[in-house]
Amino acid sequence: MEKLFKLKENGTTVSRELAAGLTTFLTMAYILAVNPSMLGSIGGGMTPEAVFSATVLASVIAMLVMAFAANLPVALAPGMGLNAFFTYTVVFGMGYSWQTALTAVFCEGVFFILLSLFNVREAIVKAIPVNLKHAVAVGIGLFITMIGLGNSGIMVKNDATFVALGNLTGGAPLVALIGVAITIILFSRKVKGAILLGIILTTLIGVPFGVTSIPKNFSPVRLPTAPLLFQFDFSVILSAKFFIVFFTFLFVDIFDTVGTLVGITTQAGLVNKNGDIPRVKQALLADAVGTVAGAALGTSTVTSYIESASGVAAGGRTGLTNISTAAFFLLALFLSPLFLLVPGAATAPALIMVGFLMIQSVVNIDFKDPSEGIPAFFTIFMMPFAYSIAQGIVFGILSYVIIKLLSGKFKDINVVSIILSLIFVIQLILK
User: Fold this and answer.
1) What is the dihedral of CA 355, 361, 363, 365, to 10 degrees?
2) For residue 353, which phi and psi values (nearest 5 degrees)?
3) I need a labelling partner for 12 at 20 to 30 A (CA). Which of 208, 259, 340, 420 fits?
4) How far apart are CA 188 and CA 185, in angstroms?
């Protein structure tokens, strides 16, 4: 262990690393309920059982690469926001098959591997305006919250007002609201695994309400279902619409991963005096490999999890923390009935809480400068109101370039933004 992970050098022990891995697992295990529920709603062969297996295996592969190649305590799994984009924008909104969506994820992952190997990824991050980066996180937070509200029936369609409150006096909406209250209390009291505990308690509360359905002869243990292996469709990869899908996966994954790595390694005291992340190339490669593996197994983009911060707070400093987290994920592979028992009303509190965490980036946006604040505003409101993360990014970058040009701030516009704007204009014309 000492040779592999340099425990003494990082000021940690085996027991502390294993405990930190359990802590990280408890704070991010909600994805094992949310991801199969979300992607499993697509149907057409993409079952919750298959998605569950894919989620576990892709996460384990990515975490092992992070552990042995980068030796960092950063756990990975299919990302929130990216799974929503996969389901509600690409498949339900744009009408693509889930096979095509997996193809976009696969292509993005392969491209990421190339970017990571040639150190291009950081250059792309620097090219995107900083205010738009924060705006993307805020917009995704609102989008995820909207999904949680809709899935639970708290928010419903209305012909007159577009959306309205559902019937909150019973059934799924009431159970979801109780779950939201429980999760907020647990989170406010800094209970470890607050989101996962909120899901568990809400699922139990849903039983007497008839929201949680327990099958006859229910058994919590079951052999894993085979994932959906290599279900790709390359027939549309040359279209402009496919590029938008591909780029959005790429864009969100870039900032998700880099932002998470910066935050967690800083918290752990692992950055050097220049603020550089140790073995960042290997860490980015772990994310890319996880994404490719996830697409091949049948799940959405794999990315680094900010919940890893809980493991760092518990003392995790090396890749051994990831080994521990991966072991608990593998154990969960045989407990799929427990996670698949969770109804949409019980995942809603998790989605709403993640939305709250993501929206906090709004304080970092410079709204005093209209040429910066207005594009950020476009990015934020287009994601939930157009029900599309992709359109939020499209309108954000387009408005940024146009406003900067018209206001004479030519120096603020970089080549990457101009190229993307031209592609987006062509896409909107051809739509």
Assistant:
1) -130
2) -70, -40
3) 259
4) 5
Cα–Cα dist 219/57, whole Å: 22
Question: How far is 350 from 183, CA to CA, in rounded Å?
Answer: 8
Give the DSSP H/E element, type plus range, for residue 141: helix 130-152
Identity of the residue numbered 97: S
Q: Which stretches within 189-305 are classed as H helix?
A: 194-205, 240-267, 280-297
Q: pLDDT of 275-305, one tens digit each? A: 566 787 888 889 899 999 999 999 999 988 8
| Model confidence, pTM | 0.75
181: number of CA atoms within 13 Å, CB side? 7
**How far is Cα 261 from Cα 70, in angstroms, rounded to an integer?**
11
Q: Return the SS3 of 165.
A: strand
Number of H helices, E strands in the chain: 19, 4
> How far is 40 from 49, CA to CA, in rounded Å?
8
| Pairing assessment for the beta strands 155-158 and 76-78 based on DSSP bridges | unpaired
CA distances from residue 105 to 249, 251, 260, 294, 431 in whole angstroms, order as listed: 7, 12, 20, 8, 22
Dig out the tokens for 375 from the structure. 């594009």
Q: Rounded to 5 degrees, what are φ and ψ at 157?
A: -70, 150
The Cα–Cα gap between 6 and 2 comes to: 5
List pLDDT tens digits, range 61-84: 999 999 999 898 889 999 887 898
CA distance 261 to 154: 35
**Which amino acid, one-letter code, is at 17?**
E
pLDDT bin (cut points 50, 70, 90) of residue 179 is: very high
Only one residue has tokens 């924008």, namely 89
Three-state secondary structure call for residue 100: helix
- Burial label for 224, CB within 10 Å (0-12, 13-18, 19+), is middle
Which helix (H) or strand (E) segment holds residue 303: the answer is: strand 302-304
- Would you say 167 and 428 are in contact if contact means Cβ atoms under 8 Å apart? no
The two tokens of residue 110 are: 């392969």
- What is the CA angle 389-163-378, rounded to 5? 35
